[in-house]
TrEMBL record:
Residue ranges constituting the Phage replisome organiser N-terminal domain according to the UniProt record: 9-124
Domain of life: Bacteria
Name of the featured protein: Replication protein
Native source species: Faecalibacterium prausnitzii
Amino acid sequence: MADNRKYYYLKLKENFFDSDSIVLLEDMKDGILYSNILLKLYLKSLKNGGKLQLDEHIPYTAQMIATLTRHQIGTVERALEIFRQLGLVEQLDSGAFYMTDIELMIGQSSTEAERKRAARLENKALLPPWTKGGHLSDIRPPEIEIELEKEIEIEKEREGETGHPAPAAYGRYNNVILTDTELSGLKTELPDKWEYYIDRLSCHIASTGKQYHSHAATIYKWAQEDAAKGKAAPKQGIPDYSCKEGESL
């Protein structure tokens, strides 16, 4: 079953610990403890938009924060006062503490599939490119980071528009695009052959550059033609990726 819960994560810039407020904070007596408390409070406030509260009616008290962060109450009280002085925390009229910079640090993900897509894109980017000298470069340029973010945002928009996870890429060359429903249908109707046909189509697209209106429909078409000719898809070994010239939908 798909995991459609919403997850939140903390986005910190690489120079977070070099900022003036954090450097001053950690330079104090017990400053490392205060820094640890601050990070835990950021995490605790994510799902409430920066507010530290148990639910929409009950704000966290210093004692509750001490319990949740596993620090002494005195340490937490001193930390909160220092956070206020540094402008890291404000106390709202409701009594709730508000983490002032949290809006710049909140990231969220709506599905397990989205996180997997992000991981897949990240793994692709980790493959180092060949340089002109024939050596592999282990440096990932910032342009790739930008493209990764763009691809993730595009897929998130697609998911938001349809209410369903965006199609994913499959096959040896990650160029066979199928929705979850299409993939499930292939597994059901071609239980021993679906992987073969996905790889066959993947290699065919990669070698010929052809484009198809529907990759799932193309696979069904090939399977029907093979069945009509009495040609069984191999279950192991090197698959046969041959097809008629001009095959398309």
